[in-house]
Amino acid sequence: MHRTWAIVEREMRRFSKSPMMIVMSMIFPLLQLVVLGYAFGGNVKHLKLAIVDQDHGVPAVKVRELASAVSSGARTVDLLDYTDSGQALTDLRNGVVNGVLTIPPDFSRRVLTNNEPRVALISDNTDTFVSASLGATVGGFISQLNAPETPVRVVGGAGLDIVEVYPYVPYIQYLLPGSITMSIFMMVMIGGGIIFIDDKARGLHEGYLVTPITKLELVAGFNISGTIKAVLAGAAITIIGSMIAGVPSPLDPIRLLRMMLVISVTAFALISLMFLLMVRVSDPLMPRMMFGLLNTVLYFPSGAVYPQQGFPGWMHAIAVVDPFTYSVHAFKSLLLKNTGFGAIAGDVTYLLIFSIVAMTAATMLFKRTL
Amino acid sequence: MNAIEVHDIVKTFGDFTAVNGVSFDVKDGEIFGLLGPNGAGKSTLIRMMVTLLLPTRGTATINGFDVVKKADDVRRSIGVIPQAMTSDLELSVYENLLIFAKLYGVAREKRNALIAELLNAVELTQWADKPVKNLSGGMRRRVEIARGLVHEPRVFFLDEPTTGLDPVSRTAVWDMLRRIKSQRDLTVLITTHYMDEADKLCDRIAIVDHGTLVALDSPEALKASIPGRDPATVSLDDVFVHYTGRDLRDALQEPSAADSPFMIRR
């Protein structure tokens, strides 16, 4: 076992002389957290809505007033008046406006005679987020138009009260668990995989192989040192990321302790996976190519950016074996819900079993000769 | 007693036979030179003896240990300086030696004294705390020599230790090897392209060509073996050309991963 610690000592001495490595492993996940968190987390605003009023009656004016209220209040839409519906549609196709609300000539007459009055929203559905947001906004103020002027005293229909268990979770906080896992993965790839293959290509491993070190001691040495490096990166981004994302009580010691446990088993699982994939590789290009591939295959199916319930079957299958899934779930439980150990026990157990299986396979595949 | 015994050893890579039935013995305390043109099979031969490659056929024993059956015993009893520089450039001279002392299981109480003695022997004591990346090529080679001896091996393998060094550094490396050899019970097997140095240093020389052993004797005896020439006027270069021929050895080789432009240079 003393040879394993010699490998760990060597790797850590090298790591301490390359502080840029930890910085590099944190820059991408932090940038991703901030950019994606703010890009996807905000409400859609200032959508350009063309209004073609072909009616000009009092109910039509009311529709315009309700639209103006949204425009000056929530600012979801900016209103643009058109007299020519053909021009409005041309501008919609050219992207000048995002939707066209047409109030037909007989709208007021139909409102007054209770004869199914209708307005039309023509939207650019090439952008589903924008068209859905416009539909919801216009639908909202049209339903206000239909509301009775005097509220009904006794409501006969069933109602729904929604109770949220946790305080509002902004999207940037929702992304943080994935960003922590990503920083661990980055360090595993940069400080583990790439350095491992580069050292192998430069012949440094020949130095190890002529000593009496065993395969297990060597693989364990690389795995332990890789885990320590990745834990440092994960711990740093947990604290910095929590502060950026506004997680309440980011330095809560009990939660930090549980976070360290999950960071450690995640780091061990990912470094074991990486060595399993790299154990027979000698081309320095390979880990760099696999970096992007693994990033996509492991990160996106994990539920880090989108709920897994929306995935097709084949992506569910990846998510079931993906160690990112369990890591992200455990981090979400701790950071967003501040749960106890019971909520993360399954994740920790899976990650540990995954680590042992991957490390055993890597040791068996490791070649003791050139 | 023989420190190294190689018997009818063969190594093939697919259809290509790199070493073809080589046999020789190296006596205890001897300095044994292995010469041959590029691609002759010298490095493959050394790699089999130091357990980095498994022989396809034949046997080799080092200090009485079979390289296949008793590989760990072989590893404990040998020091190896591979052709490539394998010291860690980021670490200091001392750290490189310390890590390898630990890998070889050198007792804690012996480590520092041994490292100090070796640094003194290779004249690097004042550079002990400097990162290896700041040292010249010759100094880096001396670090490797000290590193290879940190566990007091009985047999020392050096694969082209002076290649790429200027004449002054080369001479320094050879002088150090001679001095270290005189102070220790050490058998040395060395490959080199520098015939004059092999002539001065080696007790016996083996010439390998196309994977086979074409000559093996003392430098004097090899010179005397050239027909029709006065041994006093024959150099080891003449011996080398006599046994290996004058044809250029054009040979393809696998591209090295170390040549990749994507590798992180340290």
Tell me about this structure.
The complex is a heterodimer of chains A (370) and B (266). The two termini of chain A are 23 Å apart. Chain A contains 14 helices and 4 strands. Chain A has a 4-stranded mixed sheet, sandwiched between helices. The mean pLDDT of chain A is 89. Chain A is mainly alpha-helical and 370 residues long. In chain A, strand 1, helix 3 and strand 2 form a beta-alpha-beta unit. Chain A folds into 2 domains: 2-40 and 169-365, no CATH class; 43-144, abc type-2 transporter like domain (abc type-2 transporter like fold), CATH 3.40.1710. Helices cover 65% and strands 6% of the residues of chain A. Chain B is an alpha/beta fold and 266 residues long. Helix content of chain B is 34%, strand content 24%. Chain B has a 6-stranded mixed sheet with strand order 6-7-8-3-9-10, with helices on both faces. In chain B, helix 3 (93-103) crosses helix 4 (108-121), helix 3 runs parallel beside helix 5 and helix 5 (137-148) runs parallel beside helix 6. Chain B is globular. The chains are: A mainly alpha (370), B alpha/beta (266). At the A-B interface, helix 1, helix 7 and helix 8 of A face helix 2 and helix 3 of B.
- With strands numbered from the N-terminus, the spatial order across the biggest sheet of chain B is 6-7-8-3-9-10
Q: Give the helix proportion of chain A (percent range).
A: 55-70%
User: Rg of chain B to the nearest angstrom?
Assistant: 19 Å
Dominant shape of chain A: elongated
Sheet bearing the most strands of chain B, described?
6 strands, mixed
Percent range for helical residues of chain B? 25-40%
Contiguous runs where pLDDT drops below 50 for at least 5 residues of chain A: none
Supply the number of structural domains of chain A.
2
The number of strands of chain B is 10
User: If helices are DSSP runs of H or I spanning 4 or more residues, what is the number of helices of chain A?
Assistant: 14
Radius of gyration of chain A: 29 Å
Largest interface: A-B, 36 and 37 residues
Mean residue pLDDT of chain A: 89
SSE sequence of chain A, one letter per element: HHEHEHEHEHHHHHHHHH
Q: Can you write the helix and strand succession of chain B as a string?
A: EEEHEEHEHHHEHEHEEHH
Class of secondary structure makeup of chain A:
mainly alpha
What is the number of beta strands of chain A?
4
